[in-house]
Structures are given as C-alpha cells and as structure tokens.
Amino acid sequence: MQHVTCYLDFVSPYAWLAFERLPRELEGLHCHVSYRPVLLGALLQQHGNPGPVGIAPKRDWTLRHVAWLGHALGCGLDLPARHPFNPLPLLRLALACSDDGSVNRFVAGSVLRHVWQGGHDALDPARLDALAELLAEQTRPDPEGGRARSLLRANTDAAAARGVFGVPTFEAEGRLFWGLDSLPMLRACLAGDGWFDGPAWDAAHHLPFGLPPARG
Predict the structure, then answer these.
(1) What pLDDT was estimated at residue 216?
(2) Residue 171 belongs to what H/E stretch?
C-alpha cells in the first residue's frame, strides 16, 4: 500500500478544497493518507514569505478565487467572518486527538468544515466548545497538558526540514506536491507515470538562477 502524508493548516482555504478533492483524485489507487497539522505562519516566516493574504490585492483575489473554486468543485466554500485568523486553537484541538502528530480524516474534516462552511467566526468561543465536544471521543487523555503543542511544534519542524513551504503539501514516493492544483500530478506519480523516472523532476533543482543576488 502506498502512503501519502498531507501537511495542512486549517487557516488555508486550499487545504479545505484539496481535502474534499483528494478522494476523487486517488480513486482506484491502493494508498493510505495521513493528515499532519502544521503551523503555516511558521513555514512562511522561515522563507520570508508574507503569503497571499500579506499582499492586499492578492488577498482579495485569493478569497474570490477560492470561493469560486468551492462552487466549481461542488464542495462549497464560505468565507469565515474574519480571515486570516490565528489557527493555533484549531491546530491544538485537532492534535489533542493524536498520539503521533497525525490525525484521521474525521478530525481533519471536522475542523476544516468548522472554518470553511457556514461563514462563521472560526474562533468564536461557543463554536470552539461545540467543536471540542464533537471531537471528544477522539481526544486523548493529557493529564500534564501541552502534548498538542509539542506535536504541533514537532510536525512543523519536521515539515520545514523536509522542504515544505506551504499548505496543503502532499508527500509521496519521497516527493513533495504543493497545492490543490498538484493533485493530478500526485495521482500520476502514485500511478507509476514514467515521467517521474526521467530527468525532469531533478532538473528544476539544478537550473541556474538568472537574476543577480538581492541587495540588503
């Protein structure tokens, strides 16, 4: 059985869209998916990347585009009352349901729907309490507290070490596939497309950079 690791942060609308699309893209393949929550902000900061919401016109376009994609893909996407927001409470709620940093599809989907369905405030205290109740049967005992924080830190550090720079990112066959639009490429890799045996994958890494170094 092939294994796919999905790195995601619930603040990302593309994480929701890819989560919904993934089963269709993997249909007919014999593989298992694990979902690993990471802190997107830390990954962006490591590369000096403000992200799409850090540039005002790009934020407007991104939010319009993902709303349309939700419509076009048939899964729906309602913008939350505020975006961006601090995803830490949601990441920790999810990882409270984990022993090893991975969460199952029920947990990942529950948190993503909490954010991207209905157009509500993702951090509304009453809604967070309701989400915690929904996940209660999945939640692991943590008498000393702090396990979810430790798992999130470890997941994010490990993702950064692997070269993950954004979410959603899928890891399979030792390769990383970034974003919703990488799903057909991920499927091709898992299905044994011969392109991946050729030189093109590694060629990108070795291509010389054609611009002068940035001046500080």
Answers:
(1) 59
(2) strand 169-172
Q: What percent of the chain has pLDDT over 90?
A: 93
Q: Which of 92, 106, 100 is nearest to 158 (CA)?
A: 100
Q: What is the CATH number for 65?
A: 3.40.30.10
Please say whether the beta carbons of 62 and 53 come within 8 A. Answer: yes
Does 159 map to a domain?
A: yes
Here the tokens at position 15 are 């994480």
Give tens-digit pLDDT for 17-35: 999 999 999 999 999 999 9
Count CB-CB contacts under 10 A for residue 216: 3
**CB–CB of 89/128 below 8 Å?**
yes
Residue 18 is part of which domain span? 2-201
Percent of the chain as helix, strand, coil, to the nearest 5: 50, 10, 40
Helices 105-116 and 125-134 pack at an angle, to 10 degrees, of 160
Cα separation of 38 and 114, whole Å? 17
Max mean pLDDT among 80-94, 131-145, 202-216 falls in 80-94
Where does the pLDDT of residue 143 fall: very low under 50, low under 70, confident under 90, or very high at 90 and above? confident
Q: Considering the domain boundaries, does residue 206 fall inside one?
A: no
The three-point CA angle 39-42-45 to 5° equals 150
Q: For the chain, what is the domain count?
A: 1
Amino acid 174 reads G
